[in-house]
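For homework, think about our next protein:
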Amino acid sequence: MPQTLTITECLECDAEVPWENDARVGEILECPECRTELEVESVEPPRLALAPEVEEDWGE
């Protein structure tokens, strides 16, 4: 049986971002239009947030 998709809007460009209903909180998705990384913030209700940027570790 095929996975059901949830559709939410990208926070940067408002494009539709599809994701599988078995996604987990904290999972990182990429907008198919602008390539912005989005993090699954909530599954119920479905909500995405901008993914935190990975910073360089300069050994500090």
